[in-house]
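Sporulation protein
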Amino acid sequence: MSKNKKAMVVTAATLATTVFLSGCGLFGGEDTKKIDPPQDVTLMENGDAVNEKVTTETNETGKEAVESSIQTELYLIDKNGYVVSQTMELPKKEGVAQQALEYLVANGPVEQMLPNGFRAVLPADTQMTVNIKNGTATVDFSKEFATYKKEDEKRILQAVTWTLTQFDSVDKVKLQLNGTPLEAMPVNGTPIGGDLSRADGINVDNSDVVDITNTKAVTVYYIGGEEGAYYYVPVTKRVSNDQNDTITAIVNELVEGPAYASNLLSDFQSSVKLLDEPKIEDGKVTLNFNESIFGSLEEKMVSEHLLNSLVLSMTEQEGVNSVALTVNGKADVLSESGEKLAEPVTRPEKVNTGSF
C-alpha cells in the first residue's frame, strides 16, 4: 500500500485546500508567520529526505535568531473516535521518527497544538525508543504505555503504525514493552501477529461485509469535521475479491459513501459513474467519468473536496502516483477554483495541513 463518506455536497470554500497543477500536489494552507521568506532545506533522516522550514527573525538584541521546523504527520483521535493525520510543524530534532511518537503522548508537547476536537493517542508519561533497521521500526515503550483505555487499543496500533510509516525508511513496525516483544496488546489483548503495516488498515469498517474471507482491503478518504474545519479521514473497507479492478472498486466506495451513522461525508453524487475501465500507465491512473462528477452541471466544475478525496484514495494504491480526469472522454475539466486540470494531480506530501 502506498504512503503516498451520507452523501451530501460540502462547499470547498470552508477548507483551505488549493490544487496545484503541473505535477504539484493538492492541499495548500500553511498559515505560519514569516518575517523573512523561509529557506528550503533538505534533511536526511535514516535515508529520508525531510521537509524543513527555516525562519529567520530579529530578536530583542537586534540579532537574527534562526528557528527551524519539520512538517510531520501526527495521527491523532478526533471527537468521533477516528484516527486522523494532522500535519504539524515540529521543532528540528535528530530522530524525527521518535519525535513524531513523542508528540502522540497525552499531556506532552502536542497539547498546545491540538486542533479542536482532537486528542493525543498515547497515555501520559509514556516514553519510548525507536530503532529503524532494514525497513522495520522497533518501538520499545515504557510501562506507562499499558495504562490506556481498552477502547483506544486498536486506535493506538493504527496511529503508531501510520505515523511511523510516513517515513520512507519505515515499512513495518514492531512493538515492545520494557524490552519484551508484544505478541498482543497489554490491556485488551488485541493480537499483533508479527509486524504491523499500513496493510492492516485504519478506521476499519466491516459493517457491510458478510464473508470477510472473500474480500480485500481498500482505503478510501471521506470528509470529517464540520463547516469551517473539514479534514480527510482514511477508512479501510472490504471489497469483493471478485472485483479484479481495484481502482473501480475504490470509486464505487466513494460514490456509495460512508456508513450512515459514521458522522463522515462524501462529495460524490450517487449518479457518478466511470464510463471506461481505468487506465494505469507510468504511475498515472486515468479516470473517465460521466457528467455527474461535476458538482454543478451548469458550471461544469469538479469540487475540491471530491478531487481531494479521489486523489488521496487512488494514491493509497501501490503504483499509483497521480490521477488524470476526463469527462465523456474530454480532458477540459475545471476544478472548483476555475483552474483547468491540464496535468495529472498528485498526492500532497502531507495531508490535512490547514489550521482549524
